[in-house]
Amino acid sequence: MNILLVDDEVELVSALAERLELRGIDVAWASNAKDAIALAETHHFDLAVLDVKMPGMGGLALKEQLAKQHPDMKFIFLTAYGSEQDFNCVASDIGARCYLVKPVDIEELMAAIRTTLAKQEEHR
Question: Is the pTM above the cut of 0.85?
Fold first, then answer.
């Protein structure tokens, strides 16, 4: 499985990438939407883990761009802001279903990745 991590907190995203790689997952990461879009132009990702609030383009808008490039890509969102209710109000409009609150526990992220990709397999 190939995963794209995008978060403007470089230390967080690089640490998450390293921890996922130790678990046998192929990971690429970016600290902004522009770099994430460029990575998605040259690589296939099964899933993207996106920070909701980033300077410039946030995770929800980035999801829209990435989904245009890769309609089968699945998404998980990370947020340190707002409530689940706030997120669900915005996210339901674009079909975002999974989000985790930062600081994210690596095992919780792994479980969310497995669940999200398992749902993808069910729909094939």
Answer: yes
What are the pLDDT digits (tens) for 22-65? 999 999 999 999 999 999 999 999 999 999 889 999 998 999 99
CB 47 within 8 A of CB 4: yes
> Which residues lie across from 3 on neighbouring strands?
27, 47
DSSP 8-51: S-HHHHHHHHHHHHHTT-EEEEESSHHHHHHHHHHS--SEEEEE
- Domain at 68, CATH number: 3.40.50.2300
Domain count, the chain: 1
Identify whether the C-beta of residue 32 lies closer than 8 Å to the C-beta of residue 8.
Answer: yes
pLDDT at 91 over 90: no
